[in-house]
């Protein structure tokens, strides 16, 4: 592993065998390439967004990085450790939060889950108490410690899961959809906590999400995976430029007026009574556009809507003509069919 790389992924792939019934006593075996020869490195202390459409291979990558799944090919190291071969050793150095699953004990009070993890990870008593007090304060969990996990709201449980993942001071934190289904207040609280964690403790964070605001507010770097292939690695602004994505400014005026005129800064895409929708480049700030409209029109209210992340990726791939070409030694297909029992 290079000196600057804390996470190193070198041409890693994951192939699943899926058997399907095709007729009476007939089956076929489909080999689905969920992750297809991806390579990247993440430096210690980086906070990186790892995004893509549903089924792109994001969660599969995270599971290989934690040792839950074994790669079908390639080389993978986290802090110099092979996750699939030394999963127990690695567990003491990583934290994982899956947004749609919980690591907490469903029928126990939240504090009992933390006590169990205290023993499981063999956290020294003093360090456990210090970390617990800090996490309870930062994530506002004090009133929830004696509440059974099953009675917590989604936002409360998510904050509880994040605290559980950090009790043992992991060096890297994997977050798989950590804000899914959360309300605005809970999202803001989780984002602020993650920002402080990364800044103050230097924790490496790999974040998968469908919420582009998570990426914009937390990550300076974003990687895009599509059909198991890494198709972009760079700044978020570069992703917007590659996909020519647009944000939408929704403007409410005092009365119905003709489409507002703001030159080349934006274009009106819809008018419905006093409400108008203006599209402008996602890589540009909304501030000058808002200031101009406020100065020239009777403005009542406005809001900015972010582009859908899957639409951004789709536009980016379309502008590229197709997904990037694979190296010469790789098959260009993602799924192959192998005759199974009963097939001729």
UniProtKB/TrEMBL annotation:
Residues 13-252 form the ABC transporter domain. InterPro entries: AAA+_ATPase, ABC_transporter-like_ATP-bd, ABC_transporter_ATP-binding, P-loop_NTPase. It is found in: Cell membrane. Residues 322-344 are annotated as: Disordered. CDD domains: ABC_NatA_like. SUPFAM superfamilies: P-loop containing nucleoside triphosphate hydrolases. GO terms for biological process: response to antibiotic. The keyword Transport applies. Keywords: Antibiotic resistance, ATP-binding, Nucleotide-binding, Transport. It comes from the Bacteria. GO terms for cellular component: plasma membrane. Gene3D superfamilies: P-loop containing nucleotide triphosphate hydrolases. It is a peripheral membrane protein. Signal peptide: none annotated. This is ATP-binding cassette domain-containing protein. It comes from Streptomyces asoensis.
């Amino acid at each position: 592993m290079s000196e600057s790389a804390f996470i190193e992924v070198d041409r890693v792939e994951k192939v699943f065998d899926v058997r399907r019934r095709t007729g009476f006593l007939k089956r076929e075996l489909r080999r689905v390439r969920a992750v297809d020869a991806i390579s990247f490195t993440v430096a210690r202390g980086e906070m990186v967004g790892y995004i893509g459409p549903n089924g792109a291979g994001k969660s599969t990558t995270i599971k290989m990085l934690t040792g839950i799944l074994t790669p079908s090919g390639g080389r993978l190291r986290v802090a110099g450790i092979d996750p699939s071969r030394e999963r127990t050793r690695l567990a003491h150095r990583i934290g994982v939060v899956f947004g749609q699953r919980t690591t907490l004990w469903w029928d126990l009070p939240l504090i009992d889950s933390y006590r169990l993890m205290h023993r499981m990870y063999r956290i020294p008593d003093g360090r456990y108490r210090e970390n617990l007090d800090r996490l309870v304060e930062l994530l506002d969990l004090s009133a929830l410690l004696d509440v059974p996990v099953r009675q917590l709201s989604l936002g409360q449980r998510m904050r509880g899961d994040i605290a559980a993942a950090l009790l043992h001071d992991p060096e890297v934190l994997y977050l798989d959809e950590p804000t899914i289904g959360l309300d605005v207040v809970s999202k803001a609280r989780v984002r602020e906590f993650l920002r402080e964690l990364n800044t103050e403790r230097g924790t490496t964070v790999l974040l998968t999400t469908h919420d582009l605001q998570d990426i914009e507010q937390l990550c300076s770097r974003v990687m895009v995976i599509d059909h198991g292939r890494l198709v972009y690695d760079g700044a978020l602004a570069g992703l917007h430029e590659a996909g020519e994505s647009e944000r939408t400014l929704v403007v409410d005026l005092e009365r119905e007026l003709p489409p507002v005129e703001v030159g080349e800064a934006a274009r009106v895409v819809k008018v419905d009574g006093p409400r108008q929708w203006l599209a402008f480049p996602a890589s540009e700030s909304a501030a000058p556009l808002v200031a101009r409209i406020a100065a020239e029109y009777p403005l009542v209210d406005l809001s900015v809507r972010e582009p859908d992340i899957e639409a951004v990726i789709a536009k980016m791939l379309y502008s590229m003509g197709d997904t990037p070409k694979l190296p010469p030694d790789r098959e260009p297909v993602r799924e192959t069919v192998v005759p199974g029992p009963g097939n001729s």
